[in-house]
């Protein structure tokens, strides 16, 4: 068997293992975001939405849907990659992949793609939950698919970096709860940038989540406060850079060797 065939076979085996790892544990993978987003839609969408009515001509409950999808997708993509890498380091079974004939790019590709898959599945689950509370349509399907793929791959790549960097499980919790989620909440999930003072608008534009939330919102509603083409181009370049960094870190053994 050629090295190329071994690489493809190994990539598929590692990808399959990583996907089955979260699919076989639905109570950990799908139940928490299901409960959390039912609460979000009930409290923010239904109760608060009756008072706010519309933003940018869109019912409030529908306006927050894309942001909640982004929150669920990127959080789970990041969490899956960071936990998988760190848990493999902690229990030393990541050495099985490192000593296999797999290339570093194939290893990284399997971890990133499996984690992005979890992010997309959770995002789809959030969209399904939203459909029970309001009518959900897709105005720009190309942009919706493109942004969902890019942002989940990006945060899966960032999760790999986090998993290599973390020294204990508390570091993983800190990154997800105290860095990632606040950025999403201040990324225009529950409000329009036009509704806040000019100074805060300019500061918000430094938050990459603004572009992700608006990109997915444009895919669903055809409404955005930033240029979707520019956002997609920048996020795509950033994703390629982060995944490239993952390969470099694996090649150098960062966090993988004592």
Task: Give an overview in words.
There is one protein chain. This protein is an all-alpha fold and 258 residues long. The protein has one domain. 78% of the residues lie in helices and 2% in strands. It has a two-stranded antiparallel ribbon. A hairpin with a 2-residue loop joins strand 1 and strand 2 (58-59). The chain is globular and about 60 Å long. It starts with a helix and ends in a 6-residue tail after the last helix. The model has no long low-confidence stretch (mean pLDDT 87). GO terms for molecular function: ABC-type transporter activity. Keywords: Membrane, Transmembrane, Transmembrane helix. It holds the Pfam family ABC2_membrane. It is found in: Membrane. The chain crosses the membrane at residues 30-48, 60-78, 108-133, 142-166, 230-250.
Kindly state the mean pLDDT as a whole number?
A: 87
Nearest-angstrom radius of gyration? 19 Å
- Spatial strand arrangement across the major sheet: 1-2
Strand content: under 5%
Count of beta strands = 2
Instruction: Tell me the count of domains.
Output: 1
Morphology: globular
Protein name: Inner membrane transport permease YadH
Subcellular location: Membrane
Keywords: Membrane, Transmembrane, Transmembrane helix
Membrane topology: Multi-pass membrane protein
Identify the notable features of this structure and list them briefly.
258 residues, 2% strand, ABC2_TM, single chain, 78% helix, two-stranded antiparallel ribbon, ABC_2_transport, mainly alpha
């Amino acid at each position: 068997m050629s090295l190329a065939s071994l690489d493809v076979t190994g990539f598929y085996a590692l990808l399959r293992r990583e996907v089955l790892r979260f699919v076989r544990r639905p109570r950990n993978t799908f139940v928490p975001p299901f409960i959390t987003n039912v609460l979000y839609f009930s409290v923010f969408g239904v109760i608060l939405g009756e008072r706010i009515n519309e933003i940018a001509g869109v019912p409030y409950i529908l306006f927050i849907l894309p942001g909640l999808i982004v929150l669920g997708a990127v959080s789970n993509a990041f969490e899956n990659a960071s936990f998988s890498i760190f848990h493999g380091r902690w229990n030393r079974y990541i050495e099985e992949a490192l000593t296999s004939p797999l290339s570093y790019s194939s290893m990284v590709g399997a971890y990133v793609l499996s984690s992005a898959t979890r992010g997309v599945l959770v995002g789809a689950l959030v969209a399904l939950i939203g459909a029970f509370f309001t009518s959900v349509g897709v105005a720009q399907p190309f942009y919706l698919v493109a942004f969902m793929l890019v942002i989940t791959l990006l945060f899966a790549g960032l999760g790999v970096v986090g998993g290599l960097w973390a020294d204990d499980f508390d570091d993983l919790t800190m990154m997800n709860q105290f860095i990632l989620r606040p950025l999403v909440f201040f990324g225009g999930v529950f409000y329009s940038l036009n509704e806040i003072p000019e100074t805060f608008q300019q500061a918000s534009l430094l938050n990459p989540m603004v572009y992700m939330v608006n990109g997915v919102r444009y895919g669903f509603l055809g409404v955005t406060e930033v240029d979707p083409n520019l956002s997609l181009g920048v996020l795509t370049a950033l994703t390629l850079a982060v995944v490239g960094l993952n390969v470099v870190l694996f090649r150098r053994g960062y966090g993988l060797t004592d």
